[in-house]
Amino acid sequence: MGEPQYQGQIAEFRRLGPPEMGPMSGQVWREDPRRLVFLLARYKFVSKMLAGKKSAIEFGCGDGFGMRVVAQTVESVHGVDFDAEFITWAQRNAERENINCTFSLLDFVKDAPAGSYEASYSLDVIEHIPESLERLYVDHLADVLVPNGVCIVGSPNVTATPYASPVSLEGHINLKSADTLRATLARRFENVFVFSMNDEVVHTGFSPMAHYLFALCVGVR
Question: CB within 10 Å: which end of the chain, N or C, has fewer?
Fold first, then answer.
């Protein structure tokens, strides 16, 4: 007989079966479990900043694994991505786990999502978008918001490039500093507040020494 306090958890596990990890998150777990901690910490920051919102949309949701953290504090979360395999897995998993998330296939750089939301957010996306197309991406992040909406953008810091992996260096074609990230988003937002992040810790310290950057944007222009 196991400890009584765990019997409810064991029964629920037997009823639902083991939870699944998606094609992106599962591979991160295999390659570098610590990076999965950092990934979830980024979603936790978004979740805290957007707590109480009725609706949010994630641009570049991938397999939707981290979205569940945001769904703890936001009533309804929608994810868009241009990869059909990620979207198929994310939708199936959300239905299986009864998570308040929906998904749609969309090239969100070329086309704006339908509907309006109280918040938009996008993590680890802008650095993959060619600088010539980033204007459309930022416009879509802003245009999907209600007048008092909030936008959050997260990206690796260009000053951390010497420590990036070869795979990251290949895909990160548009890295920003704190100043250039702020300037990019200020075109569409009255206020852009930039935070630094090292591993799983978010702070307001010296941004050139940060590995990751968050921009919290309010006041849609």
Answer: N
> What's residue 7's pLDDT?
85
The structure tokens listed for 33 are 């479990």
pLDDT at position 10: 86
Rounded CA separation 112/139 (Å): 9
Q: Which residue has the higher pLDDT, 7 or 36?
A: 36
Query: Is the separation of the CB atoms in 19 and 97 below 8 Å?
Result: yes
Q: Are 177 and 207 in contact (CB under 8 A)?
A: yes
Which amino acid makes up residue 138?
V
Longest CA pairwise span in the chain (Å):
63
**Whether the predicted pLDDT of 1 surpasses 70:** no
Alpha carbon 66 to its chain's center = 7
Token pair for residue 70? 């945001």
Nearest 5°: phi and psi at 182? -60, -45
Q: In the structure, what pLDDT confidence band is assigned to residue 36 with cuts at 50, 70 and 90?
A: very high
Burial grade of 148 (CB within 10 A; 0-12, 13-18, 19 or more):
exposed
Please give the Cα distance from 167 to 184 (Å, whole number): 25
pLDDT digits (tens, 9 = 90+) for 68-104: 999 999 999 999 999 999 999 999 999 998 899 999 9
CATH superfamily, domain at 15-220: Vaccinia Virus protein VP39 (3.40.50.150)
C-alpha to C-alpha distance for 67 and 72, rounded to whole angstroms: 9
Of 110, 86, 151, 203, the C-alpha closest to 101 is: 86
pTM of the full predicted structure? 0.94
